Amino acid sequence: MAEADLVQVRQLLRAESARAGLGLVDQTKLITAGSELARNILTYADGARGSVRIHQVTGQRGRLGVRATFTDDGPGIDDLDRALTDGYSTSGGLGLGLPGSKRLVDEMTISSTSAGTTVVIVKWAR
């Protein structure tokens, strides 16, 4: 994953969220969260490989949404609880990326080991 891929991730998130019927506010929330998670791959994966998969999902009672999966082969997150705390950063940043992303979406799961990290987010149409 390269810096130029961030634009493509944002474009794909916008297209899928519009297709799933998300309103403009929810589209913006999903795009912001997804952009932050994609940037985290660039920042924290230390040059390791990363990928993003984005697709529409159907939930209960036929409700549509968008699921985005961010995966990297980096060193992993040592302390998930701390990483999800506002202000905590290992890169000297503001420490708002993961906790802020979590607040912007309806669902977020993180799986991290020394072999890499996978973050899955879902935003549902209202």
Shape: globular
What structural class results from the helix and strand content?
alpha+beta
Tell me roughly what share of residues is in helical segments. Answer: 25-40%
Counting structural domains, the number is 1
Order of helices and strands: HHEEHHEE
Largest sheet: 4 strands, antiparallel
Tally of strands:
4
Name the CATH superfamily classification.
Histidine kinase-like ATPase, C-terminal domain
Determine the number of helices (DSSP H or I, runs of at least 4 residues): 4
The separation of the N and C termini measures: 32 Å
Q: What's the overall average pLDDT, rounded? A: 91
Strand arrangement, largest sheet?
Answer: 1-2-4-3
Q: Kindly report the CATH topology.
A: Heat Shock Protein 90
What are the low-pLDDT stretches, counting only 5+ consecutive residues below 50? Answer: none
CATH class: Alpha Beta
Radius of gyration: 14 Å
Please state roughly what percent of the residues sit in beta strands, choosing from under 5%, 5-15%, 15-25%, 25-35%, 35-45% or over 45%.
Answer: 25-35%
Mind telling me which CATH architecture this is? 2-Layer Sandwich
Q: What brief labels describe this structure?
A:
126 residues, four-stranded antiparallel sheet, Heat Shock Protein 90, 38% helix, 4 strands
Description:
The chain is of the alpha+beta class. It has one domain (5-124): Histidine kinase-like ATPase, C-terminal domain (Heat Shock Protein 90), CATH 3.30.565. The chain contains 4 helices and 4 strands; from the N terminus they run H-H-E-E-H-H-E-E. The chain has helices spanning 5-19, 24-44, 80-83, 97-104; strands at residues 50-58, 64-72, 107-113, 116-124. It has a 4-stranded antiparallel sheet, covered by helices on one side. Strand 1 (50-58) and strand 2 form a beta hairpin. The radius of gyration is 14 Å and the shape is globular. The mean pLDDT is 91.
